[in-house]
């Protein structure tokens, strides 16, 4: 049975052993009623074992172990399927490296009362980035503008991965048919939600580079996503 306002955060991990415990604690501090699903891709650094430890100590924390690393999109799709099968009404996605600050979670959940898909946006008034070089800023802003133009969308931050979906959106998208698994995964989900007529709202966030470890985003990944925009546009969804 669906519980309309019961919320779950999908939190993919791969070698995030230094970030996972403080991230879970930070989430629990600001939205204590929200549950967390750690989706671990068999991290060699022991992140999965730590996730099991956290889940054993907190009934609000769950773990989904996957056999290996297949890309962020695949991890999210597995988490979404897990959430839908258990009746969650609001399903969120965010990074585990603190580039997505948990302090924005209450505002995103509140906004989900008036919108079907809420995006934490770097490119609306009040949003932004910190600790980014000029090259990365140009790639990110240029990629979003390019995708917006090709896809005919007004959403300003198409590549961001800090989102809150009503379950109806994910059900309507038909998750098994999602094609993109990398950076373009975020573009595809927002495009398909918009094409289905769902309301999309952006709220401002400030995006910071990860606190610990190395970024998994590269110029190659972004350029690949830009190429995939045409595939999304021509798909006919």
Describe the structure.
β1 (3-13), α1 (17-30) and β2 form a beta-alpha-beta unit. This protein has a single domain, classed as Spore Coat Polysaccharide Biosynthesis Protein SpsA, Chain A (Alpha-Beta Complex). The protein is built from 8 helices and 9 strands. The chain is an alpha/beta fold. Helix content is 41%, strand content 20%.
Features:
8 helices, 20% strand, 9 strands, alpha/beta, seven-stranded mixed sheet
Summed up:
The strands form two sheets. The protein has a seven-stranded mixed beta sheet, with helices on both faces. A two-stranded parallel sheet has the order 6-9.
Task: Summarize the topology.
Blueprint: E1 3-13, H1 17-30, E2 35-40, H2 47-57, E3 61-65, H3 72-85, E4 88-93, H4 105-111, E5 117-121, E6 128-130, H5 134-151, E7 163-166, H6 167-173, H7 184-195, E8 200-204, E9 206-208, H8 219-233
Helix pairs in contact: 1-2, 5-8, 7-8
Task: Provide the helix percentage.
Answer: 40-55%
What is the CATH top level name? Alpha Beta
User: What's the β-strand tally?
Assistant: 9
CATH topology: Spore Coat Polysaccharide Biosynthesis Protein SpsA, Chain A
Tally of helical runs: 8
The portion of residues forming beta strands comes to 15-25%
Which overall shape is indicated by the principal axes computed on the Cα atoms? Answer: globular
What's the number of structural domains?
1
Radius of gyration: 17 Å
CATH architecture designation: Alpha-Beta Complex
CATH homologous superfamily designation: Spore Coat Polysaccharide Biosynthesis Protein SpsA, Chain A
Oligomer status: single chain
Overall pLDDT score: 90
Tell me the distance between the termini.
Answer: 29 Å
Strand order of the largest sheet: 3-2-1-4-7-5-8
Low-confidence stretches: none
